[in-house]
Amino acid sequence: MPSQPPDSAGPLRHPRLRQASQPTVGQPAGQRAEDEMPGGGAAGVLVAGTLFSEGELCAMRLDGVARGVCAGVYRSVTIAETPALRAAALLRKVPPALVPRVAIGRLAAAWVYGCAPPPERIALVVANARRTTELPPFSGCTLHEVALADADVTAVGDASVTTGLRTAMDIALYVPAPAAAPVLRRLDAAAWLDAPLHRVRTEIARVPGLPWKLRALALLEQLMEGG
């Protein structure tokens, strides 16, 4: 006897997920409605309170249909968790008015790159020459006005994220050493991010007037020596 009815869609057995996986009228073949549904976004994230309630998403996670990405954000098990998906998940939690003006940074950026645990608060950075609005209360984000060149930011899916090198520099400077050290090791090990410890140290050393500079350099030297 088959383990599921012939018309079942396997992991998409929840009726609305199964419906979302079918092309809509006028939709290009291979593109899911799930990618455009409310709370979905280009990376296919599912946000509690939009198409599904938190209770429904939790039930689907327990049923093996969905998996948590970060607090209140899920994905179908048929969609791989990639940097673009993680970045999209964080964007869903950023106040919409700020999205075009800010980049995801620090530990949040490291999580996007798969080098840190999900952040408790989303660190956002904005160039100090740009005008922006303040964060609303209880946004779950922190906003940092910093010197930020175009070369310090890259596109990850639809999100602006600090580059691997800038992310590592900021973590060395502004994150307490016990939390920073394992993340810096992972960023160093991810060759595609081009943020080896020696380069991070060189870049920090050449910038004058950075806060916590000596502490950051000491941490990086310790890590380079295998500490």
Mean pLDDT: 82
Record field, number of beta strands: 8
Please estimate the helix content: 25-40%
Report Rg: 20 Å
Could you say which structural class the secondary elements and strand pairing correspond to?
A: alpha+beta
Shape: globular
| Poorly predicted runs of 5 or more residues | 1-12, 19-42
**Strands of the largest sheet, in order across it?**
1-3-2
Number of helices: 8
Approximately what portion of the residues adopt beta-strand conformation? 5-15%
Largest pleated sheet: 3 strands, antiparallel
For the termini, the CA-CA separation is 58 Å
Structural overview:
The chain is an alpha+beta fold and 227 residues long. Helices cover 34% and strands 15% of the residues. The protein has helices at 15-20, 54-62, 83-91, 106-112, 164-174, 177-189, 197-206, 213-224; strands at 45-47, 66-70, 73-76, 103-104, 122-127, 141-146, 153-156, 159-162. The strands form three sheets. Strands 1-3-2 form a three-stranded antiparallel β-sheet, sandwiched between helices. Strands 4-5-6 form a three-stranded mixed β-sheet. Helix 7 (197-206) packs antiparallel against helix 8 (213-224). The longest helix is centred in the C-terminal third of the chain and has 13 residues, at 177-189. It is globular. The N and C termini lie far apart (58 Å). The relative contact order is 0.09. The model is unreliable at 1-12 and 19-42 (pLDDT under 50).
